[in-house]
Each structure stands twice: as structure tokens, then as C-alpha cells.
Amino acid sequence: MIRILHMIGALEMGGSQALVMNLYRHMDREQIQFDFVLDHPDRDDYAAEVRTLGGRIYTMPGFHGNVGEVRRAWDTFFSEHPEYKVLHSHVRSYASLYLPVAKKHGVKTIIHSHSTSNGSGFSALVKLALQYPLRRQADVLMSCTREAGAWLFGEKACQSDRFFLLPNAVDVEKFRYNEATRRQYRQQLGIENKLVVGHVGRFHEAKNHGFLLESFARLHEQQPDSVLLLVGDGELRGEIERKIAELGIGASVILTGNRGDVAELMQAMDLLAFPSKWEGLPVTVVEAQAAGLPCLISDKITHDVDLSPLVRRLPIDSADVWARAMAEPIARQDVRGKIAAAGFAIEESVQRLSGLYNKLWQESERI
């Protein structure tokens, strides 16, 4: 068995974590096992499942200007754990500090781009500066889309043989539409005979929850039987709760928190509204299509996620436009075949990734 070390920051229910866990669940764990490094051990929604699957979890210091501490911690780690030959980093913000340390210990490295932006402000500029060396440091430059790859590594690097495109694949059968599950969940949530607008995602600037709430409020004025189902949690929860109160829609918004039954909750929805300011390739939108769910998405999101006629793009400059679109959801469709044909079935991604891990492991053994 080979053990792959994933630097993922946190095991919360975020987009990159959902992808990695999808891959982990379907990996042949007698051949390849995943272990995880966190710098936010308090965000641990998936920790119990990781341990059940046989994974180990380590904690390392996060970065807040402490360059020497970070490098020393990683150096000590690799000295104490020579069993690791491959490091797969999903954290990019300060990965340039520890990738050279891994290389010093003969570890092959993968840097994985899951986004197309660092947000705004001073911290975004710091991240941009720290990230630039990654294109030269890593053995493999991995990305969910070419846009996300070009953003982090540059277009020239994406044309090299070090570039590895790995779509954010899902277990399409897990999300298969089920009428009985829909009735059960709508009854449990008290939303029978309602128009249910859903969203799944971390409460983060990128997800644009404020705009979503404003759009839903306009819809609710016209359709009082509508409900907004928000699945997720995060640092902006307090701000979102205040916005809900300000708009006077508290009785029609359900905040579920982080949930492990997203596939079932999607059965209860009538459409997914996803007005993100930026994304890499949102796993949620792929999952929603696998569930046959109509998707209203921001025109800022990559076209790589347009896998079926269920996706409709809208600009994020008018809440009224979104409200009108929410009021006219199209019928559900079974498009699982289209998703698989586009290369988004988890089985294909697992096979390709397993081949890469084995190749890198063998190369490291020869060093």
C-alpha cells in the first residue's frame, strides 16, 4: 500500500474537500490510502469518516508571517515520516514555503488549483505573491479546469507535460433522483407544496449569499409559498442571518448547517441557485445536475460545468432577473449519461489519479 499525503487545510464541507472525499471513498484503499495535513483542525466535518476509512490526520502550523516556523515544522515532519513519497497540496496560499522542503526529502509534489481568484484586499495580494513560485516548484500542476490552471500557473505552464487536468467528478448514481426521498425530506422540512430554491456551499464571500437572499426576497414577494434552503456554514453565517432578518424573510429561509445528506436534500429542491462571484469548478453544480435539478448559475462560473440543458447562466447584476428565473424552473431531467460522457464520473477520475500516484511513487523510490 502507498500512502498519499494531502495538505488540505481543513476537513470542513467545502468544494475541494468534497472532491477529495469523493475520490477517497472510491479509491482502492488496499492499494492507495489518503492521509491529511490540516492547519485548521477545528474545521473537521469529515474527520470521523477519514479515520473510519483508514486515514491519518496531522496538524501543522498555519501561516501568519511565520515563515521559519512553517518550514521547520514541515522539515521535522518529513524527517519523522519517511513513508510519504507523494504530497498533494490543495492549499496554494503558502504552499511555496513547504514544497521545497518536501523536495529536499525526495517527496514528489502536486499543487492543485481549485479556484480562479483569491478574493480582494491586502490578503489577496499577499497570496498572489506567495503563489507565483508554485509553477516552478511542483512536479505536477493539477487543476479542475484550464481556466483555474492558467490563473494559478500561467497559460504556458498549462501547455507543459507537467499539467494534469482533473475534473471535479461526482458519484452520479448517488444523486439519482428518487421521488420517495423527495417526499420524505419535504415532509421532514415542512416544505410540502412549496417552491424550494436551494443552495449548497460554504458561507464565504465567493458564494455571494447576499445577492442570493435579495433575489429570493424579490421572488418571495410574488410567490409567498417559496422557500430558500441554504445548506452549509462558514465565517459569514452571522452576516447572512442579519441580512435575512433585514429582508424580513426569516420564516421562509431554512439554514441546515453542514450536512452529510446533500444528495437527499437536493431531491427536496426544485432548483439550485448559484450566483457565485468566482469559482474553480463547483462540485455542487455537477452534483445538482446528477440529481436532475435545474441550475441557475452565475455567468462568472466556467463553462466547463455546463454539462446538460439543466444549466442556465445569468449575470449577477440584477436580483429581479434572478427572481424571475427562479419563478419559472424547468422540469427535472435525468442527465447522468451526459455527465459521465463528459468525463465527470468519479470512476474515471479515480482511475486516472491512481495511475498518476503510482507513477510519482515509483519515481520517488528511484531518487
Concise overview:
The protein has 367 residues and is of the alpha/beta class. Helix content is 41%, strand content 17%. The strands form two sheets. It has a seven-stranded parallel beta sheet, sandwiched between helices. Strands 10-9-8-11-12-13 form a six-stranded parallel beta sheet, with helices on both faces.
How is the largest sheet built, in terms of strand order? 3-2-1-4-5-6-7
Overall SS class = alpha/beta
Helical proportion?
40-55%
Q: What profile does the largest beta sheet have? A: 7 strands, parallel
Cα distance spanning the termini? 19 Å
The total beta strand count reads: 13
How large is the share of residues in beta strands? 15-25%
Low-confidence stretches: none
Describe what this molecule looks like in 3D.
With 367 residues, the chain is of the alpha/beta class. 41% of the residues lie in helices and 17% in strands. The chain has 15 helices and 13 strands. The protein has helices at 15-26, 47-52, 67-80, 95-104, 122-131, 134-137, 146-153, 179-189, 209-222, 237-247, 262-268, 283-290, 319-326, 336-341, 346-366, and strands at 2-9, 32-38, 57-59, 86-89, 108-113, 140-143, 163-165, 195-200, 226-231, 253-257, 271-274, 295-298, 311-314. Strands 3-2-1-4-5-6-7 form a seven-stranded parallel sheet, with helices on both faces. Strands 10-9-8-11-12-13 form a six-stranded parallel sheet, sandwiched between helices. Helix 1 (15-26) links the parallel strand 1 (2-9) and strand 2. Helix 9 packs across helix 13. The longest helix has 21 residues, at 346-366. The two termini are 19 Å apart.
